[in-house]
Amino acid sequence: MKTITVFKGDGIGPEITEAVLNILDAAKAPLEYEMFRVGAAEYEENGALIPDAAFASFEKNKVLLKSPITTPVGKGFRSLNVTLREKYDLYANIRPAKSNSAVKTPFQDIDIVTFRENTEDLYVGVEKQIDPDTVYATKIITRKASTRIITDAFEYARAQGRKKVTCVHKANILKQSDGLFLSIFQAIAQNYPDIEADDKIVDNVCMQLVMRPQQFDIMVMPNLYGDIVSDLTSGLIGGLGLLPSSNLGKDYAMFEAVHGSAPDIAGKNIANPTALLWSACMMLEHLGEMEIARTIRRAVDQVLAEGSCKTPDLGGQATTSKYCEAIIARL
Ligand code: NAI
């Protein structure tokens, strides 16, 4: 048995966490959980976003399954996600977007993995008011952080037998910061002659993703573009309810859905738990439990293909619990 830490989060967080843990238990995943409520609700009641015991649990277990957390816009506390990524140096945010033939979208045969640098860029959150009408925000790009995420993208491509890595940037305008990221990419690409390397400007990438997404394989980019572009890739495969992610560092690993706390549908038992479930599958793979991950993925595919039990975001009418029961029935 392996003990992992679980953060239940805000909004739809508790509902989808419960659904996912029920499926993991039904699949006989050899896991025990230390569960914590974190986020806005915890903050309002106890004055801390993450209780000390929750930090301690993650530091002990090293593996965290996290559901989404509400972050106030334009005021209030700093994003807890950004804090966690920085504190535990979870520098590699990996977001696989793959078409599922049972989920109809205008786009077919998409299989894109986004490698998003997770610790710097504009997300360092250093903003300075110069005068009442002017604010500066700091964008940080370093050789160290760029080198490790770009290397990880190429290593992943090689390990998974993928063909191409595309660097996404805006080095035509941000000549020094994105220019550094791009020059590091070009240097590292020389070490991987077996993998095609190309680069594209981020605005062009957004257009190309909608016109001809099949041309992309692995994409690597700084933090802000990674945040935006990976949401776009989730739209290509059927929406945010389907996009999982891992946040990996040298010592710690955190797995979470890409979507947020979806306050508009919270408490209604209609959220799609698939993105968190697939994140849990990435976690199982990280822990070496390949067969259980495969079994769960197969059960989800069967339920989606059968078609009568889809959540509303995928055009169905099933509740979160019914969908979860259907997956369990096929395990
Ligand atoms: P969101 O991702 O929560 O929702 C966007 C839209 O997608 C909504 O219409 C929502 O109903 C739908 N949606 C999202 N996940 C879904 C699911 N599993 N099943 C069905 N529909 C789903 O983004 P939004 O509204 O911009 O953010 C809400 C809050 O979440 C904010 O406070 C934001 O800061 C936070 N957030 C947290 C993240 C995290 O904890 N990793 C990531 C993104 C946002």
List keywords for this structure.
single chain; 331 residues; alpha/beta; ten-stranded mixed sheet; two-stranded antiparallel sheet; 12 strands; binds 1,4-dihydronicotinamide adenine dinucleotide
Could you describe the 3D structure shown?
This protein is α/β, with parallel strands linked by helices and 331 residues long. 40% of the residues lie in helices and 20% in strands. The strands form two sheets. The protein has a ten-stranded mixed beta sheet with strand order 2-1-3-12-11-4-5-10-8-9, sandwiched between helices. The protein has a two-stranded antiparallel ribbon with strand order 6-7. 1,4-dihydronicotinamide adenine dinucleotide is lined by residues 12, 68-71, 81, 240-241, 256, 259-265, 271-272, 275, 313.
Q: What is the H/E string?
A: EHEHHEHEEEEHEHEHEHEEHHH
Cα gyration radius (Å): 20 Å
How many helices in DSSP terms? 11
Average pLDDT taken over every residue: 95
Instruction: Report, as a whole number of angstroms, the end-to-end distance.
Output: 20 Å
Strand fraction equals 15-25%
Sketch the major β-sheet. Answer: 10 strands, mixed
